[in-house]
Write a structure and sequence with these properties.
By secondary structure, the chain is of the alpha+beta class. Helices cover 30% and strands 27% of the residues. The protein contains 7 helices and 8 strands. Helix 6 links the parallel strand 5 and strand 6. The longest helix has 15 residues. The two termini are 13 Å apart. One of its GO terms (molecular function) is acyltransferase activity, transferring groups other than amino-acyl groups. InterPro entries: Acyl_CoA_acyltransferase, Bact_Acetyltransf, GNAT_dom. This is Acetyltransferase (GNAT) family protein. Keywords: Acyltransferase, Transferase.
């Protein structure tokens, strides 16, 4: 996929443009992300996990091997997906996950978020495809990692179509969890890189 493509070209949808984000998109992209962590996840902004939402430029736009993709409609960003060169480590991730990826050569997907009124239109899939194409175009990356919260409706099914479950914290004991409170419902995936 080119760096800019209409959703018509990608999935037969009209009215959306999927492209790599630019500095002028930061405020709208941040709004999509913050709205999602507050509304959908119910916990809101947590500095230890969401620093990239506040500093989009440093995490996604400045590094050569990182990128943020957006879906836009009517000049407004309505969905996001980011790729960063970040190998999962243990802790906080289970060793069964961290041991499966080559240090420094892993792309991780983040912030695949779509505003509720734009869901079920193929935007998440188009954005993920853009991220995977980007990762495949970089010589550095040999694997792609993603984790999702299983409480998000349809998330496990969506990611299962794009890769393999490496570790499901709903059914496995995570000894690194400590006193985190409620049990984690995180599912960890290895995604397929397009060739």
């Amino acid at each position: 996929m080119s760096s800019t493509a209409t959703a018509d070209e990608i999935r037969g949808l009209s009215g959306y443009v999927v492209r790599q984000a630019e500095p002028g998109d930061i405020a709208d992209a941040r709004s999509v992300m913050l709205d999602t962590v507050y509304r959908d996840f119910g916990h809101g902004y947590l500095p230890q996990w969401h620093a990239d939402i506040i500093d989009v430029e440093s995490f996604y736009l400045a590094p050569e091997d990182n990128a943020l993709f957006v879906a836009e409609r009517g000049g407004r960003v309505v969905a996001t997906a980011g790729v960063r060169g970040q190998t999962p480590t243990s802790p906080p991730h289970p060793p069964e996950v961290a041991d499966r990826f080559e240090e420094g050569r892993t792309a991780s997907l983040y912030r695949v978020y779509v505003r509720p009124e734009h869901r079920r239109r193929g935007l998440a899939g188009a954005l993920v495809d853009a991220c995977l194409d980007f990762a495949a175009s970089r010589e550095r990356y040999t694997g792609v990692y993603l984790h999702t919260d299983a409480r998000t409706p349809g998330a496990v099914e969506f990611w299962s179509r794009r890769g393999a479950v490496l570790f499901d914290e709903r059914v496995a004991v995570n000894e690194h969890r400590g006193d985190a409170g409620e049990p984690f419902e995180t599912v960890h995936f290895r995604l397929r890189l397009p060739r």
